[in-house]
């Protein structure tokens, strides 16, 4: 008999092995490469190739990867029609969840071997970017834009949103957030993807499950909530007082805290420095003051630090991206991690099936319907 171990929220539980990524107090590594090195030297495409294949690409491999991404950016026509039918008030993550499921029906890749799963992943990366931008345009009464081959993934997202070749600095910063968001071992949404893969279900189901989990405010939804929180304030003083009141009433402040990182999130440090540089370039001080007021108060009062979602919210805001796509942009990146994990699980599988500790009634006698309830 196996020994019963119970840890609420599976805290500290090793639920499987992975070669994709390691999350440690002192660092974050994708396939053995530190996140600081990747953030400084790599691009979304190179990093995605690394996470999926285990090695950085050479020039030809990268060129081919980018070619396949470009080849699949245009959505199948019926998909655009499906998006047009969805009520425009629908939450963008809910739309992306349904649309990702639907776009799977237009998957041109036959078969279920490892190479088919890899190809399907590249199509998903491409198409998820296009689903996000196409939905945004439809929602706001604009015609969807065709992709422009040759742009990077980040440039393409900005182009298909706005119809202009983006400013290189803005595209590079979006690219950085996509690198930082790409992979984080057994976080909640990746675990959902792995559990789904472990039943030998299909890749699209793994990704759709991941989107559903990421939508929650305790996970990816926090980048939108963090910015909405900052938007309530007109001044740093107001932000500081609200933070003190929220702490006193034991409320949660979005964009802070982490299950693993207890002394700060490396990704947040990397992005915050770049966000400050952007704010300085824009001459922006109001939002930084409010940002710092919440951050410093959380540090002084609780010793709880920002996770990546906190600086990401303000970074996207300064890039003038609509708040409703902050979490979908997280999907545009994390889809790489989900697929890498789903592939790892699928091709070296044992079904994930833990146990629960029962806390309900003991065995009770069945009472026939005629004897239940008192009818006058
Ligand atoms: C990320 C998160 C879900 C981790 O949850 P967890 O590992 O279960 O953390 P815990 O709830 O054990 O946190 C320990 C203590 O810190 C507090 N805490 C953690 N995050 C907090 C936050 N964002 N705001 C206020 N208090 C927080 C908890 O209330 C708890 O306090 P207590 O000991 O007095 O009960 C949690 O920090 C959170 O809800 N953060 C806000 C949402 C968010 O930013 N999510 C993105 C994650 S990358």
Question: What topology does this entry show?
Answer:
Elements: E1 21-24, E2 27-30, E3 33-34, H1 35-41, H2 44-53, H3 59-71, H4 77-85, H5 92-103, H6 114-139, H7 153-162, H8 168-181, H9 188-198, H10 203-214, H11 222-231, H12 236-248, H13 266-282, H14 286-302, H15 309-318, H16 326-346
Antiparallel strand pairs: 1-2, 2-3
Helix pairs in contact: 2-16, 3-6, 5-6, 5-10, 6-7, 6-16, 7-8, 8-13, 8-16, 9-10, 9-16, 10-16, 11-15, 12-14, 13-15
The protein binds coenzyme A (COA).
Coenzyme A binds next to loops.
Q: In angstroms, what separates the terminal alpha carbons?
A: 52 Å
Would you identify the CATH architecture of the largest domain? Orthogonal Bundle
- What is the CATH T-level topology of the largest domain? Citrate Synthase, domain 1
Count of helical regions: 16
How much helix is in the residues?
A: 55-70%
For the CA atoms, what is the radius of gyration?
Answer: 22 Å
The total tally of domains equals 2
Question: Average pLDDT across residues?
Answer: 96
Q: Which strand order spans the largest sheet, edge to edge or round the barrel?
A: 1-2-3
Strand content: under 5%
> How many strand segments?
3
Structural class: mainly alpha
Bound ions, cofactors and other small molecules, one mention each: coenzyme A
The shape, in one word, is globular
Model regions low in confidence, pLDDT < 50 over at least 5 residues: none
Q: CATH homologous superfamily of the largest domain?
A: Citrate Synthase, domain 1
Q: Please trace the helix and strand order, writing H or E for each element.
A: EEEHHHHHHHHHHHHHHHH
Please summarize the sheet with the most strands.
3 strands, antiparallel
CATH class of the largest domain: Mainly Alpha
């Amino acid at each position: 008999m196996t020994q019963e171990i119970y840890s609420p929220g599976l805290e500290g539980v090793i639920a499987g092995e992975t070669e994709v990524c390691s999350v440690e107090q002192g660092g974050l590594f994708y396939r053995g490469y530190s996140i600081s090195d990747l953030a400084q030297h790599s691009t979304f495409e190179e990093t995605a190739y690394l996470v999926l294949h285990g090695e950085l690409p050479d020039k030809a491999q990268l060129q081919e990867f980018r070619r396949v991404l470009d080849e699949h950016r245009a959505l199948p026509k019926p998909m655009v029609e499906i998006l047009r039918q969805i009520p425009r008030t629908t939450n963008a993550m809910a739309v992306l969840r349904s649309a990702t499921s639907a776009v799977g029906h237009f998957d041109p890749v036959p078969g279920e071997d490892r190479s088919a799963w890899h190809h399907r992943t590249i199509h998903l990366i491409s198409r998820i970017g296009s689903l996000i931008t196409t939905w945004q345009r439809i929602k706001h009464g604009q015609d969807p834009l065709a992709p422009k081959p040759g742009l990077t993934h980040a440039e393409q997202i900005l182009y298909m949103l706005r119809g202009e070749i983006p400013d290189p600095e803005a595209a590079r910063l979006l690219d950085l957030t996509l690198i930082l968001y790409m992979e984080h071992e057994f976080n909640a949404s990746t675990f959902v993807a792995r559990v789904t893969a472990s039943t030998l279900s299909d890749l699209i189901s793994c990704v759709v499950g991941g989107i559903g989990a990421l939508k929650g405010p305790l996970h990816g939804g926090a980048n939108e909530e963090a910015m909405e929180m900052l938007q309530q304030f007109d001044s740093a003083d107001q932000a500081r007082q609200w933070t003190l009141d929220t702490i006193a009433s034991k409320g949660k402040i979005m964009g802070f805290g982490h299950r693993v990182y207890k002394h700060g999130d490396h990704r947040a440090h990397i992005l915050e420095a770049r966000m400050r540089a952007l704010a300085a370039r824009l001459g922006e001080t109001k939002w930084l003051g409010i940002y710092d007021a919440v951050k410093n108060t959380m540090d002084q009062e609780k010793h709880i630090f920002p996770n990546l979602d906190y600086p990401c919210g303000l970074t996207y805001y300064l890039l003038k991206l609509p708040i409703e796509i902050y979490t979908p942009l997280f999907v545009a990146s994390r889809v790489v991690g989900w697929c890498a994990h789903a592939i790892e699980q699928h091709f070296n599988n044992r079904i994930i099936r833990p146990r629960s500790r029962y806390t309900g009634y003991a065995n009770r006698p069945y009472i026939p319907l005629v004897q239940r309830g008192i009818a006058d």
